[in-house]
Amino acid sequence: MRGGIKEQFDRDGYVVLEDFLTAAETEALRAAGDSLARNVPQEERKSVFADQGRDEYFLNSGDKVAYFYEKGALSEDGSLLVEPHLALNKVGHALHEKVAPFRDVTRSERVKEVCRALGMDTPAVAQSMYIYKNPGVGGEVTPHQDASYLYMEPPEALLGFWIPLDDATLENGCLWFIPGSHRGGVHTRFVRNPDKDSKDLLIYDRPQPTYQRNNFVPVPVPKGSLVLIHGLVVHQSDRNKSSTSRHAYTFHVVDLVRGCYAEDNWLQPNDDAPFSVLYSKSWVQQEVSKNVRVVSSSPSLCAQNRSFPPMTLRVLFDVAIGMEFRSGWVYKKC
Q: Are strands 88-93 and 123-131 parallel, antiparallel or unpaired?
């Protein structure tokens, strides 16, 4: 792994690693994204990504391959205004589990090396997305922090991976960052609404702040690069004003030992779909058979160890049990 990335990451809140993917890997992901766009199942409903706060389809998409459209691509009656393969905003949120090319890259040794270089103990993939940002309809992504949507305590336990599959330019919507903004705490959170009678399933817990445009710096990068994104760094991208696409694959990793995953985040793991562990320094990996039962303390007993936040332990325990027959991860000791 290239040296110095932790120093840059700690200073700026983001790091660019060019040539992270080979040309063949980049093309394989690009082809997989094109295939998803051209083969949307007929039964899929047309969900607009901008409407996610009231959308059960979005809320329940964490363990699926779900399709979300650009607002400008649909008429009021839901019919398409552009060619079908150009209409999508994104596909997510379990590409790293469900689609082989994305799974291969996400679980690669290079990704694990990055996590190790940044000091992660037990990184697990929480969610993944293919972002299209097609010409003409690819909309602006407003300034935000990733921790607003996938909050960890502390927020440093969240890490974003962003890989452009086209050259990301000023014209087609490259990322922009406020360097050093990761040192200011989380500014707002997008959480599950405690008011079960409300039509709003997800709400912001406080008003979203306004950021000065002149504080942002553009980060154009060639395709196949990796942009590492701190959970608290403020970033955005402009709408695609060019005649070319700006496809990207992105996923988020959470450290299940060094952080506590919030129970009111929109995305929640479950017994059937635990977060996928990449490696662990604190767990033991061993061969397990389908006939072996995990003999372990209950989650409540695990939580008596105050060195871990109780919520983290519950997620750890669920993931360990859920992953038992999948990849051989078992929890070592509470």
A: antiparallel
Separation of alpha carbons 331 and 334, rounded Å: 8
Helix (H) / strand (E) containing 159: strand 158-164
**Amino acid identity at 22:** T
Q: What is the DSSP string of 201-219?
A: SEEESSPPP---GGG-EEE
- Strand pairing category for 276-277 and 123-131: antiparallel
Residues 54-83 have pLDDT tens digits of 688 889 899 999 999 887 777 877 788 888
Q: Which tokens in the block code for residue 243?
A: 């005649």
Residues 78 and 80: their CA atoms lie apart, in Å, by: 7
- Range list of H helices, the chain: 5-12, 23-38, 56-59, 95-98, 100-106, 109-117, 299-302, 310-327
pTM for the complete prediction?
0.85
**Do 144 and 31 touch, CB atoms closer than 8 A?**
no
